[in-house]
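for the writeup, i need someone to sanity check this before i put it in the appendix. the sequnce is what the collaborator sent (i think, or maybe the updated version? ugh). structure was predicted straight from it, no edits. if anything looks off just tell me and ill rerun, i have time this weekend
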Amino acid sequence: MTEAGQRRGRNETEEERADRMWGELIQEVRVAQTGVQILFGFLLTVVFQPKYTQLTTTDQAIYIVTVVLGACATGALIGPVSLHRLVSGRRVKPQAVRLASRMTFVGLVLLLATMTSSLLLILRVATHDGYVPYLVAAVVAWYLLCWYGLPLWARRRHTSRTDR
C-alpha cells in the first residue's frame, strides 16, 4: 500500500511472477520470431536468383553478413522456446525467465542488424545512389527510437525508485 492507501504492484510469489513474465515474454517472442523467420526465409532464396551473380563483391559480402545475422537472430529468438522445453518442470522458471529475456534482447539486437544490412543491400541494388547510407541511417534511427528510446524513456518516466 502506498501512503495514499492505494495498492501498488502485484501481490504474487516469485513463481507466480515468473509464470506471468514467461507468458508475456513468449507473446513478445512470437511477434519477433515471425518477422525474423519470414525475413530469413526470403534471404535464403536470394542466392538462387540469377541476378545474384551480377552483384558486386561488396553486395555479395553484405548479403553473406545479412544471412549470418539472420541465422543468429533466428537462433536467439527461438532459443527461449528450447530453453523452456528443456527446463520445464525443473523448478527453475525464475532463472529461465531471466535467461530467456536476455536471449530475446540479443535476438532483437541481431534482428535490428539483420534488417539494417538487408535494407542496405536492397537499396544499394535498387538505386546505386550515394544517399543510400543516409536513408539506412535514418531508418535505423527510427528503429532505435521505437525499439529502445521510447521504451527506455517510458521505463524511466513511469517507474518510481521503489519499483526498480
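The chain has a mean pLDDT of 91. The CA atoms of residues 16 and 94 lie 9 Å apart.
thx in advance!!
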